[in-house]
Structure formats: C-alpha cells, structure tokens
C-alpha cells in the first residue's frame, strides 16, 4: 500500500468524526446517494424521446455497469485482496462493508453510469460525475475505502463505459429523430 494513500486517507478520515451532523452526511453520501443516482438514471431513461432511445440508454448503462462492477472489479477482488482501512487500523467504520477494498465496486459502478449519462446528456452527466466523486470521498470518510480504491474503481468505471460506448457505436445510428 502506498504511504501517500495512507496519508490522504488519514487526512480525510481525521477531518471528521467530531460532529454527528458530518458523520450522518458522510453516511448518506457513502451509503444512500447511490440509490438516488440509480433513480435519477431511470428518470433520465424515462424522459428520453422514443422507445429506441430509452432502450439504448438503459442498455448502455446496464452493460457498462455489468462490465465495470460485475466482471472486472469482481475478477480483481478474486485475485487480489486489499484490506479495508477499518480492518487495517482496527476501528469501526461508519457503514458496514466486507471483502476486498481495491478497487471500489461503488466507484466502478457509478463512474461507469456517470459517463453513460454524460454521453446522453452533458448537463446531467456533469452532475453524475460530481456526485460520484462526492460519494467516493464519503466512502473514504466512512472508513471503508482507501483513496486508491476510489481512483482505481473510477478508472475501471470510466474505461468500461468508454469501451461499451465504442462497442455500441453502430447501434446509435438512426436514434436521432426516431420514436
């Protein structure tokens, strides 16, 4: 593990845990924000013009998430085990997590989703990217991830979404103007 990774973790983790309000906010962003992002994605899909666009956006998002979280992250967890910060330092985290720390499955999932949303709608995409970053920082604050876990998961998510978007390039033809 990198010394810088530990120092950044300690800085973020030590910045809080003195005030119940910040802890509750950290828990919300680390544990419950993902549900709101999924709901927002489904709203964006619903408001697409035409059933083909709806199916395309939903499919692109699902495939990117499956690749990032379901395949690549799971494979890395199978072969590489990194202890979570709370296990390494022996404290109780703000939220319950288990398994290997690197890469963050949450970061992989939500950065993949954010890039898919960005391809569909730049304004919503920037919000999704910002909230994915906030969720990643909150998961460090909660004591369940190292900064490199979040960066690794974010990179996997973005690369997975980029690959799926490239893979589906031929299926985007004809979506403009079709209902």
Commentary on this structure:
The protein has 179 residues and is mainly α. It contains seven helices and no strands. Helix content is 73%, strand content 0%.
Layout of strands and helices, then pairs:
Blueprint: H1 3-14, H2 20-46, H3 51-79, H4 85-89, H5 105-120, H6 122-141, H7 147-167
Helix pairs in contact: 2-3, 2-5, 2-6, 3-5, 3-7, 5-6, 5-7
Summarize this, please?
This protein is mainly α and 179 residues long. It contains 7 helices and no strands. The N and C termini lie far apart (51 Å).
CA-atom Rg in angstroms = 17 Å
The number of helical elements comes to 7
Tell me, what's the shape? Answer: globular
How many beta-strand runs? 0
List the main descriptive attributes of the protein structure presented here.
179 residues; mainly alpha; Vanadium-containing Chloroperoxidase, domain 1; 7 helices; 73% helix; globular
